[in-house]
Design brief:
8 strands; 4-stranded antiparallel beta sheet; 4-stranded mixed beta sheet; 34% strand; 2 helices; single chain; alpha+beta
């Protein structure tokens, strides 16, 4: 019986020793809680009345109408703001600010719900060196709509 006990004790000690050696190097568990959130483009383009960089989440009609009026203020005739049901949806707007030439753009590529955060991934495009460009002031922007969320917005710039 002593041999059986010694063998069991040896196995337990070896297993414990291996766990102590290798466990600290293991990665923490990967969170699979991120959920893709569908989004729809309202408008995307190069000319806007918003001349400074701006990232904004709009959850009510008054804010939306004010932003739309500012955004379309460079046009002779502003089209009406798209109807949004703010009880079920919200608007996210991303403006790069004024650029000295054409060739710039911005796009919100995806949205993901991650715990209490709603992450908006976006990509900026700059003109390549030496490119022939429109010689006009531009204000690249992207406006999207998606399901309403009270989560904290986080904007994440993606690489080129």
């Amino acid at each position: 019986m002593k041999r059986g006990m010694v063998r069991k004790l040896s196995v337990v000690l070896i297993a414990g020793l291996m766990l102590a050696i290798f466990a600290p190097g293991c990665s923490p568990p990967v969170s699979l809680a991120q959920t893709a959130v569908p989004l729809t483009t309202i408008q995307k383009g190069s000319y806007s009345g918003v001349r400074e960089p701006l990232q904004i989440v709009i959850r009510d009609q008054q804010e939306w109408v004010a932003l739309w009026a500012r955004h379309t203020s460079i046009r002779d005739k502003s089209p009406p703001a798209q109807e949004i049901d703010f009880s079920a949806e919200m608007v996210v707007a991303l403006f790069l600010g004024q650029k000295s030439t054409g060739g710039y753009s911005v796009e919100i590529t995806r949205a993901e719900l991650d715990g209490s955060n709603l992450r908006f991934y976006y990509r900026e495009r700059n003109p390549p060196p030496g490119a022939m460009l429109t010689q006009a002031l531009t204000q690249p922007y992207h406006l999207i709509r998606l399901s309403r969320s009270e989560s904290v917005p986080v904007f994440i710039k993606e690489g080129p």
